[in-house]
Amino acid sequence: MKGDGSEYLCLILLLLHQTSVSRPAPERFQVVGPADPVVADVGEGIVLPCYLEPNISAEDMRVEWFRVDAAITQVHLYQQRENKNDSQSPSYRGRTALFPEELKKGNASLRLSSVEVSDGGQYKCLIQSDLWYEDVSLSVTVRAVGTDPVISMEGYREGGIGLLCESKGWHPEPELIWLDSEGHSLPAGPTETLRDSMGLFIVRRSVIVQEGDTTRFTCRVQQQQINQEKETEFHIPASENTCK
User: What are the angstrom distances between the C-alpha of 200 and each of 38, 171, 213?
Assistant: First the structure.
């Protein structure tokens, strides 16, 4: 006996259902970067990590790096297999590059050369395919370890001997303290803070040593954020410490 065709309709519906289930979904991915800030030394080069998971090729995707801490600033743009930096911020011109061979492995990390103080801040790495996009944020901390403190005598002042300490080339701004021979902090004048042509900090601070104080003093410059300190010890001959 011939069927009424309902069994054929059920078969067609079943095949359509199986086809829709087995059809691959649009390829999705995640963009990952470092959880901790990237620490960069002034004048050196750094790599800002950015990867696809899974590690599919990013060669035919759009990769954009930009700053988001103030106004949105384009740092680097790659699309259609080319670097297209016509709208790149002038401060980054000639200092950015991707790794062409690594793009095949889903590595869209950015190389930044000749780091400047102004490079510190918040960045985003955005990767976009025809059907999907994701981004990741990361932070860059710029540091510079300054010079050893230089101590000079300023002569007799206010019944004592004036000492001046100076250190250059720091970032972020450091703290300058004077210590006696026992390591105790000495009362001193206010710290004078200046900036050099590269935006690095210069710090100066004076102290007046009274008669009867120890003849050995230390100027210490410390920057706790980058866990750096430098110090210089200074000896005053006993004859000089007898104030006139």
Answer: 19, 6, 34
- What is the C-alpha to C-alpha distance for residues 106 and 60, in angstroms, rounded to an integer? 11
- Residue whose entry in the numeric block shows the structure tokens 């901390």: 141
Q: Is 10 contained in some domain? A: no
69 and 107 housed in the same domain: yes
Answer yes or no: do 129 and 191 share one domain.
no
Residues 39 and 127 in one domain: yes
pLDDT tens, the chain, 244 aa long: 444 555 545 444 444 454 443 334 447 899 999 999 999 999 999 999 999 999 999 999 999 999 998 788 999 999 999 999 999 999 999 999 999 999 999 999 999 999 999 999 999 999 999 999 999 999 999 999 999 999 999 988 878 899 999 999 999 999 999 999 889 999 999 999 999 999 999 999 999 987 665 689 999 999 998 899 999 999 987 655 554 4
pTM, 2 dp: 0.76
